[in-house]
Amino acid sequence: MTSPTAIPATASPQVEFISLSHLNPSTELNPVPSRGIDLPYFRKYVRSLEESGYDYTLLPYGSNSADSFVIASAVGQLTERLRPIVALRPNTTIPQVGAQKLATLDQLTEGRAVVHLISGGNDAEQARHGDYLPKDRRYARTSEYIDLLRRSWSETGPFSHEGEFFKFDDFGPGFRPYGHTIPISIGGQSDAAFQVGGAKADIFSFWGEPLADLRAEIDRVNGIAAAAGRTDRPRIWVTFRPIIAKTDDLAWRKAFDYVTKLEKTYSAGGPPARFLTGAPQNVGSQRALDFAQRAEIYDRALWTRTAAATNAAGASTALVGSPETVAAAILDYVDQGASLVSIRGYDTLADAVDYGQHILPLVRQELAHRAATGQRGTLQDAHPGALTPGFDPAALAGLR
């Protein structure tokens, strides 16, 4: 029998935290008209992330969004330590130019650049930028793109290429990164995503799923990596939308209030909902909605009703509870092998600061305890959350 203090064999010994940089005060809870970038707010936001102890920030990309490269460069100059993750769609930038831009960012930030490649999960959104490649071929393009990024950063002389998606002559040597290379992240839940990510990515990204399901997905990624002859394994990145308050009952009251506001926002059909009508095409959203249909709560704190309210628009599953309960839930995922944890809230700036003050230190204290003693601490046992016998979130929220 495994000791209750034993560290699981699958556990990551470290965790780094990711947030998402927001450009203005508009939120899913309270959408407000905006020109796009509120510069004083953006400056305050990214500096708050650095002060709060986050390691990375994701700069998202869409047909109607600000350019992720330009925003990443700004993040790099506004901070000293925070690592910008550029979301990049291979159809928007040829690989030689993508490599050049990323290497430039890496040099400007002295080695902090990361790239998250988005193959594209929605035909209509891809078409807005003139991309009509079938979904089943987009990951094949991403695979070729990864190879060309790495060659562009490493070749010592000119090289030519003729592949299925890209062709050029005598490119290089390319502009080099600050260090040896730049980490490449892949996400997605389709078979093609697993094949490309497992074989080639430095990081594989998941949305928040029940623990047992995520463990099976991690095993799948690692199996593909092994079959590809890799001696390493992709780092695992998992994303949540925590809803926290001083106690579990206050957090659940807040959660039910939040989901009412989310339902109102998305039913109104304005931003961000206007691009997300109909059944989602991407497998990740389909899985999230399936989990939501089967149950509202999984494990210690995972809540799927937020996914149902938003049509699983991007990362949308919540962790609900006190800071201690949510930190314990994050550690459950670290125990499954996650070493990168993205937490971003619905009340964007306020939540980012709260997480930095109340969640990040608890997780880091537990991992420091493990490193020093070789055993688990007491946080997970002391804060069972939804694992408590007779747990009833509606009763906690005062709804019955």
Automatic annotation (TrEMBL):
What's one Pfam family the UniProt record gives for this protein? Bac_luciferase
The keyword Amino-acid biosynthesis belongs to this UniProt entry's keyword annotation: no
Q: Does the entry feature the keyword Glycosyltransferase, yes or no?
A: no
SUPFAM superfamilies in alphabetical order: Bacterial luciferase-like
Q: CDD domains per the record?
A: Alkanesulfonate_monoxygenase
Entry's Gene Ontology molecular function annotations: monooxygenase activity; oxidoreductase activity, acting on paired donors, with incorporation or reduction of molecular oxygen
Entry-linked InterPro entries: Luciferase-like_dom (IPR011251), Luciferase-like_sf (IPR036661), SsuD_RutA_monooxygenase (IPR050172)
Signal peptide range equals none
Which of UniProt's keywords are assigned here?
Flavoprotein, FMN, Monooxygenase, Oxidoreductase
The domain of life is Bacteria
**Ranges for domain Luciferase-like:** 35-339
- List the PANTHER family: ALKANESULFONATE MONOOXYGENASE, ALKANESULFONATE MONOOXYGENASE-RELATED
- Protein name per Swiss-Prot or TrEMBL: Alkanesulfonate monooxygenase
Organism, scientific name: Parafrankia soli
